[in-house]
């Protein structure tokens, strides 16, 4: 550890009464300040702390409020490389005991009347099977966002190298030549060589730094909920493509009473979103059942129905003076392939390696060369994934029987070529390219 890092004292868990003025004069020192307590920010804080960095995590909302069942009903498909990182950080039991493995994915064009429970070789049906994957692991693990968030928070609160400032409002930010400082509304002042923006797609830090984004709003809104269903899903995820967007069923563990359940991500045109949300639970389940082709039998809505407008955006650069962008602050994509969180977690793995390596060599963690290394590592993967998902969205949005026949032929062609299926699976699982140690399951 460099001499400069040795001098960075861990902030006290509580401040003595009357110490606000002293805190304002003497900033609390950290190796990195993370702004944003979403899944990416929480994971990054823990990963950096496990690599011996002193971390301050600033979140404006009460973290416990995010754990309420009605706050966020979203689930995520944790890709195999992301799962290795979570296992290395100590969450293997969570993935194995609470997560639901995806053993296969079936893809079809929703307009061609192919039933999702058809035989594997049916025309127009593309079938990905984990038995063909290299290594032969689940294609993903389904996990409720709030479950992962709760586990991360529990670990962070007990970690000696992490200081959680939440709920906390930021009064001012300053990124100078030698360090960055953040003043909180309660008078505390925090300092570090670098600030990491994990504050989401509307990132205030990104805008303040003058970093522009390229992208557009889709005429689409994702409708998200959880369904109980009559027939078992057998750990198979299904994605049907309609002109408005994908209709995805994602397997989840059975309920304690034995009922089968799956998450639903139903993309609709933006003008139809409020109407779909306004459907009664019975009417909503009936419409979902029609689109699925009844392959899961009778459906029941068992979670709040939520909606999220969809857009694509990509930052022109991932850094500014003593500032680095991670996750949605740097890029946001369509959820067509379930890659959003996984891209962010791959950012986390790369930045953890870059910052911890710089610290081991006694370098300034806020130096532009450190930020550039991270950007070079991540920009290609993020851009390629954003471009590919956008092309898929536009391709499947083309209406008409000729377009449906072309898509059906393309799906069938890929299904007949095992090497192509394996290549697509490797990309989706984050198994390609130069992977940081965490994505290989190595804590370092």
Write the layout of secondary structure elements.
Blueprint: H1 3-6, H2 20-25, E1 28-29, E2 32-35, H3 39-50, E3 55-58, E4 75-78, H4 80-88, H5 92-97, E5 100-102, E6 104-109, E7 125-129, E8 140-144, H6 145-158, E9 162-165, E10 170-175, E11 180-184, E12 189-192, E13 195-197, H7 204-208, E14 213-229, E15 236-242, E16 245-252, E17 260-268, H8 273-277, H9 281-292, E18 299-301, E19 306-315, E20 319-320, E21 323-325, E22 331-332, H10 340-360, H11 368-396, H12 401-415, H13 418-428
Parallel strand pairs: 1-12, 2-3, 2-13, 3-9, 6-15, 13-21
Antiparallel strand pairs: 4-8, 5-8, 6-7, 10-11, 11-12, 14-17, 14-18, 14-19, 15-16, 16-17, 19-22, 20-21
Helix pairs in contact: 3-6, 3-10, 10-11
Question: Could you characterize the architecture of this molecule?
Answer:
The protein is an alpha/beta fold and 444 residues long. It has two domains: 3-69 and 146-214 and 314-397, FAD/NAD(P)-binding domain (3-Layer(bba) Sandwich), CATH 3.50.50.60; 75-144 and 219-310, D-Amino Acid Oxidase, subunit A, domain 2 (D-Amino Acid Oxidase, Chain A, domain 2), CATH 3.30.9.10. Helix content is 34%, strand content 26%. The protein contains 13 helices and 22 strands. α3 (39-50) links the parallel β2 (32-35) and β3. The two termini are 15 Å apart. Residues 1-7, 9-24 and 117-121 have low confidence and may be disordered.
Q: What Rg, in angstroms, do the CA atoms define?
A: 23 Å
Average the pLDDT over all residues and give the rounded result.
89
CATH superfamily of the largest domain: FAD/NAD(P)-binding domain
**Overall tally of domains:** 2
Binned, the helix content reads: 25-40%
- Broad CATH class of the largest domain: Alpha Beta
């Amino acid at each position: 550890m460099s001499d400069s890092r040795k001098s960075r004292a861990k902030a006290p868990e509580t401040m003595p009464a009357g110490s606000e003025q002293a805190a304002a004069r003497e900033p609390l020192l950290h190796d990195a300040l993370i702004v944003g307590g979403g899944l990416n920010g929480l994971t990054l804080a823990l990963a950096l702390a496990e690599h011996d960095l002193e971390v301050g995590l600033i979140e404006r909302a009460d973290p416990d409020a995010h754990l309420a069942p009605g706050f966020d009903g979203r689930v995520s498909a944790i890709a195999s490389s992301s799962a290795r990182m979570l296992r290395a950080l100590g969450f293997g039991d969570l993935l194995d005991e609470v997560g639901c493995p995806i053993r296969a994915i079936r893809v079809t064009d929703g307009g061609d009347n192919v039933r999702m429970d058809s035989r594997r070789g049916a025309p127009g049906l593309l079938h990905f099977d984990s038995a063909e994957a290299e290594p032969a692991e689940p294609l993903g693990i389904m996990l409720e966002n709030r479950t992962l968030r709760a586990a991360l928070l529990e670990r962070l609160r007990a970690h000696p190298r992490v200081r959680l400032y939440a709920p906390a409002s930021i009064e001012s930010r300053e990124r100078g030549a030698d360090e960055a400082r953040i003043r909180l509304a309660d008078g505390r002042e925090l300092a570090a060589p670098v600030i990491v923006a994990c504050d989401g797609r509307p990132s205030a830090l990104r805008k303040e730094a003058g970093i522009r984004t390229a992208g557009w709003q889709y005429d689409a809104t994702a409708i998200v909920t959880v369904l109980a269903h009559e027939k078992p899903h057998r750990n198979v995820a299904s994605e049907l493509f309609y002109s408005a967007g994908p209709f995805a069923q994602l397997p989840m563990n059975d309920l304690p009473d034995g009922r089968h359940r799956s998450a639903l991500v139903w993309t609709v045109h933006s003008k139809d979103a409020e109407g779909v949300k306004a459907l009664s639970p019975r009417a909503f389940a009936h419409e979902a059942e029609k689109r699925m082709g009844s392959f899961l039998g009778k459906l029941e809505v068992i979670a709040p129905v939520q909606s999220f407008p969809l857009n694509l955006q990509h930052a022109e650069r991932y850094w500014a003076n003593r500032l680095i962008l991670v996750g949605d602050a740097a890029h946001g994509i369509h959820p067509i392939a379930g890659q959003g969180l996984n891209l962010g977690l791959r950012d986390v793995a790369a930045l953890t390696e870059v910052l911890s390596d710089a610290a081991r060599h006694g370098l300034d963690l806020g130096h532009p060369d450190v930020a550039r290394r991270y950007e070079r590592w991540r920009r290609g993967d993020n851009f390629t994934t954003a471009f590919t998902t956008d092309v898929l969205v536009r391709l499947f949005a083309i209406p008409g029987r000729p377009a449906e026949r072309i898509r059906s032929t393309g799906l069938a062609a890929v299904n007949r070529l095992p090497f192509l299926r394996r290549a697509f699976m490797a990309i989706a699982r984050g198994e390609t390219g130069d992977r940081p140690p965490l994505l290989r399951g190595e804590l370092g």
